[in-house]
Amino acid sequence: MVTGTEGETTAEALWERVNRLSWYHAIELEPGRLTPGWFDLREYVHHYGLPERMDGMRALDIGTWDGWWAFEMERRGAEVVALDLDDERDLDWPPRRRPKEFSPEPRGAGFRLAREALGSQVERVNMSIYHATPEELGTFDFIFCGSVLIHLRDQFLALERIAGLCTGTFVSAEEYDWAASLLPFPVSRYRVDRDSDIVFWQPAKKTWKRMLWSAGFDRVEEYGTFTLRPRDRSFKVRHVVLHAHKL
Ligand SMILES: C[S@@+](CC[C@H](N)C(=O)[O-])C[C@H]1O[C@@H](n2cnc3c(N)ncnc32)[C@H](O)[C@@H]1O
């Protein structure tokens, strides 16, 4: 149970704190009561093919934001490390779209509150995937990376890092370019000036597959595709889920 101010231990104190933050993930902190996030992933989780049980696995969640995937893997039995960046300045910005001012508040407040409320042991590490090496973090039996690579300037360096950390299975779920996927060769569409969230390159499905293979994964399988929508259904994002292994 979470405490409010001065050690007060009530559900209301928790929800007051929840409502002071903005949320990306809708996380069920109490039965039937969700944080007011954009995405409720409970209706999509079956598209990703996570193992039902993850007991004994060391798992990594890359780009955890409020931590829904990290807490889900922990719920399935894994010991989980969650990566994200505390400072917005450290995200990848094209120069013309870099904000003039950034929030002085460190990111991750939602994650920390959810961790506390859930009594979770997930360890959140403030580190870019670009710097994530076995020397820094050790290796992982299972790595999850969802809707992160699409926002990176250097998707391939991130994939090389992931391959370097992974001893078992990597599950990747990323936006793909539908039109580019019709071409018979692997291409990526340039999207830096698109008027939406920051995307540098939007690979075709077959391009993502080739990138995972080239980065060091020996077996790459398409688990499926689906369309992700926020809770208010205001937009949609086509995703491809890949499962990759090293032999
Ligand atoms: C669109 S959110 C996806 C959240 C979550 N993975 C999911 O699928 O619901 C992208 C996340 O990636 C994080 N991110 C962006 N660049 C990163 C980097 N270089 N290293 C680690 N995380 C990064 C962002 O801070 C953000 O939390």
Description:
- With 247 residues, the chain is an alpha/beta fold.
- It has a single domain, classed as Vaccinia Virus protein VP39 (Rossmann fold, 3-Layer(aba) Sandwich).
- 21% of the residues lie in helices and 28% in strands.
- The protein has helices at 11-19, 68-75, 109-118, 134-137, 155-165, 205-215, and strands at 23-25, 28-30, 33-34, 37-39, 58-62, 79-84, 123-126, 140-146, 166-175, 188-190, 201-203, 219-228, 237-245.
- The strands form four sheets. Strands 7-6-5-8-9-13-12 form a seven-stranded mixed β-sheet, sandwiched between helices. A two-stranded parallel ribbon has the order 1-4.
- A hairpin with an 8-residue loop joins strand 12 and strand 13.
- It is globular, with a radius of gyration of 18 Å.
- S-adenosylmethionine (SAM) is lined by residues 62-63, 65, 68-69, 83-85, 91, 128-130, 146-148, 151-152.
Question: What keywords describe this structure?
Answer:
single chain; about 250 residues; alpha/beta; Rossmann fold; 6 helices; 13 strands; about 20% helix; binds S-adenosylmethionine
